[in-house]
Amino acid sequence: MVPLLQRILTVLLILSTWGAYTQERKEIQYLSGTDNENTVDWDFWVTGGRKAGAWGKIAVPSHWEQQGYGAYNYGRDYVTYGKNFQFHDEKGLYRYNFQIPDAWQGKKISLVFEGSMTDTEVKINGQLAGEKHQGAFYRFKYDVTDKVRIGQDNVLEATVAKMSDDKTVNNAERLADYWILGGIFRPVYLEATPVTHITGTAIDAKADGTFKSLVYLEGVHTHTSLRVDIQDTGGRVVGSTTVNVHRGDSVARVQVQVKSPKQWTAETPHLYHAVYTLETKKEKGYQTEERFGFRTVEVRPGDGIYVNGVKVKMKGVNRHVWWPETGRSVNKQVDLHDVKLIKQMNMNAVRCSHYPPDKSFLDYCDSLGLYVLDELAGWQKAYGTPVGKKLVKEMVTRDVNHPSIILWSNGNEGGHNKELVDEYRKYDLSARTVIHAHHRPGNAINGIDCNHYEDYYSTQKILEGPHIYMPTEFLHAQDDGGAAAGLADIWELHWNSKLGAGGFIWDFADEGIVRTDFNGVIDVNKVNAPDGILGPHREKEGSFFAIREIYSPIHIKMKELPPDFVGKIAVENRFHHTNLKDCHFVFKLVNFRKPYDDQSGIDTIWTANTPSPSIAPTEKGVLDLQLPATWRNMDALWLTAIDPHGEEIYTWSWRVKSNAQIAEEVLPLKTATEVTFQEDSTNYVLAANGITVSVAKQTGLLVDLTNAYSMKLAFNNGPVLIDGEYSLTGAKPFVDGNRQGIEFTYTGDLKSIRWTMHPDGWLQLDYHYQKSGSFPYAGVSFNYPENYIISAKWLGNGPYRVWKNRLHGVTLNTWENMYNDAKAGIGPWTFPEFKGYFSDISWMQFNTTQGKFLVVTEQDSMYVRLFDFYGISGPKGYPQLPQGDISFLDAIPPIGTKLAMGINSRASVNGPAGELTVIDKSVSRTLYFYFGLPKGEKENTQFVMPKVNILTD
User: Fold this and answer.
1) In this predicted structure, what is the pLDDT of residue 878?
2) Which positions fall inside the Glycoside hydrolase family 2 immunoglobulin-like beta-sandwich domain (predicted)?
3) 498, 586: one domain
C-alpha cells in the first residue's frame, strides 16, 4: 500500500506544481469599440464647428467630423484659401466611465490608445495619466495602476486637439495633401499583466534558421527562467532554448537555431510563432507570443535589394488607411480586402503612406505576402528631433516583428529628419535599412535613391547608377491618368536594369470622404485626392486590370497568334522565388455570341489543363498547349494562369478567326428586297429591306435614315475625317449587280467615300484617307445624341476602355455596358465607364431609345470612341477628343499624368507607348451598318451556337 500511496502523493505534487505554473497572459478590456463597425458611445464635447459647446454622444473609435461634429479641413486648404487661412483648431473632450475586474487586483494596469488625432491629454479619475501625447498615428500607453480604482467606477477623460501644440507635428502630419480629421480613431483599451512580465520583443530571424530575439522585461524581482519555443503553423515545436534572467534585468537575449525552416517571401509567406515563457519558483509564469518569418533582407549598394539571397523588384503601390464613411478609422475586413486587391494586381509590395497603418493590415501583409515600407509621418516637412524620437520608438516597437516590413521609411518628400535615422536600429534587432521617400534628386540614403515622379527617360539616366533606384511614388494616378498608363515601358526598364528595384504607384484608392455636412456627398477635394487605381469604395478602374497584366509574374509577349501557331507560347518566369512548375495553366477554345443573341459572352467549346513547364525564376521557356486538331474552327483562344496558392494570375486572349471571318458570319440576313436609288436637289437616297438612307450631295456625309420597323434614327453627319483638310471633287452613282451606291472623291487628306446599299438592308461604307505625320487620333466620326443611348454591345476587347499607352488588361469577348456618365476620380464611381476608347472591335451594336443599330468592320485593329469624356480633369479635360460623338479610329491618344500634362504631348515622357501615332500611308476601311433589328433574325439559325463540349484532361 505504501508504494501506491507514494505514487498518489507524487501525482498530487505534480498536479499542484503544474497549477502553480499555470501560464498568465496579457488580459485586454476594451473601453472603446474594436473598430469602425463596432463602436462604443462616449460622452463628447467639441469646441468649434457643428454641435459645438454642448455635451453629446460620440462613437469611439471614429473621427468627430464623421459623427456630425466640428468642421472639415483638407491638408492643403492653406493653399486653397491663402496664407491667412487658419485650420479649424478644434478640441474634442471625451469622457467615459468604466470598471475594472476584481481579478486584476495586484496586476499592472496600462491604458492604451492605438491612435488619436492629434495632441491627446488623458486623465484617470481626475489625475493626469502621463505627459500629453503628440502624433496621430502611433500607439501610446500609460501606466495607470495607481490611478484606477478596482471595484468602483472610474472616469477616463481625454482632451484631443485636432492641431498640435508642436509646430513640427503639424508640419509633418497636418499640413499635408490629404484629409485632416480629428478624434480617437483607433481603439482604446486596458491591459493587465502580472508584475513580472514581458513588455515587448524584437526578433531577427534569418533565412538560414538563425533566430535571435531581444526580450524586454519588467518587474523581475527574483531569479527567473525565460524559455523560447519556436512553433510552426501546426503548433509543432521546431526549436527551443532557455536562458536565465536575474533580478533587475530589463532585457534578455536569446538565440535558437531551426533546421531548414520554410522561408518567408512575398511569394511564400511561411510563418512561425515564438512563444516566450517566464518561469519562477514562487510566481505564476507569464507567457506571450509573436508571429514572425524566417527571411534575410539585404540592401547591396550598387546592386539591389535581396530577400533570401535573391534580388527582388518592387511591384508596389502607395496606400492610405481610408474608408469613405469613416475616414482613417477602419477594420480588419477593410485591411484584408485591400491586401487581397493589391495581390490581385500581381503586386508584391506596398508603401504605408504617409504613416504607419493599423496593425491588422501588417498582419495580412505577413500572412498573404507583401513587402512593406513602413513609414514615419512627414509629408513634406519633418518632425522635430525630440518628438520624432518618441514616435520612431512607438512605431518600431509596435511593428518590428512583422516579416513583411523590409525597409523603414523616415518620412516623405523632404519630411526627413536625418537625426532620426539612427533611432530605428535602437529598437530593430534586424537593423533594417532606413530610406527617405523623396522627390528631389541627390537625396539617396543607404544606397537607395527613391526619387519621385521621374519619367521614362530620366529613369534611364538614373538607372545608370551609382545607386539602386526605387521610386516610392511614380505614375500619379489622378482620375484615369497615370497608374498603368506608361507602366509597361517603365517596368521593363526596371526589370532589365541591374539597379532597377521597381517602385510604388501613387496611389491605391481615391480618398473621398462622405461629407456629413453635405447629405453624404463623397468629396475628393476636386483634383487633390482622386488619385487612386480604385474608387473610394474600391471600385476597380481600368488601370487595375492593366496593372494586373503588366505585373503578371508569368510574362507573355505574344499579342496575336502567328500564322504557323501550333500551341507553343514563349513565356518568361518573372517570379523571384517560384518555379512555374508549381503553377497551373488552363486553356479554353471559345466561340463568341452574335449581335442579336440575348446575352453577351462566350460559349466554351473546349477546356483543358496543360502541363506546367519547369522554368526557374527569371528564366524563359515554352508552354505547350497541346491543342485539338479542330482548334482553328473556334473564334478565340483563352489562357489562364493560376499561382501555387490557387489564385488566378491572369487570363490572356487571342483571336483565332479574323475580323473578315467574323463579318462573314454576321452579315448574311434572311430577308432582302430590291435596292432603289433616288435623288433630289440636295441628297442621294438609297433604300432596301425597309431601310432608307440619305447622303448629302455637297459633302458625301450621311444626313438622314429611317427604318420601316422602328423610329427614325438620329445617327448622321459622317464620316467626317478627323483633323483632316479636304474638298469634294465629284460624286458618281453606280450599280454593282443587285447593289447600288454613290462614290465621292476628294482632294486633300480624304481620298474617297463610297456608300453601297445591299438588298438585305446593310449599308456598306468604304473610305480611304492618307495622312503623314504624328497624330493623337486618326479615323472618322459621326454624330449621335448621347442622351438617346441605353447600352452598347460589342465583340472586341473589354469591358474597360483603353488609351494608346494603356492597352493592357482587356479581354477579347462579347461585352455589353449600360450607359453611364462615370468619371474616374470624380464619380459616380460606376465601372467600367460606358464612354471612352475601346479596342480591337469586330462589331458594335447600339441599343437606343430610337431602336438598335449595328456596325461591323472587316479589317482588324479598329478602335471605337464613345461620346465625350476625359482622362484627367484640369482647366480643360485631357486629352483632347476628336470631333463628333461616335468615332471609328485607326489611332487613339495616350494619356499622361497629373504631373506630366499638356494637350496630347506630355504622355510621351513616360515612354515610347506615350508617343503619338506616326502615320505615313494611305488607310482604307470598310464599315457595314444595319439601322434596326432585322426582322426574324433572332430565329435565324445563322446565329445558333453549337452545343458545348467541355473536355478536361
Assistant:
1) 87
2) 198-295
3) no
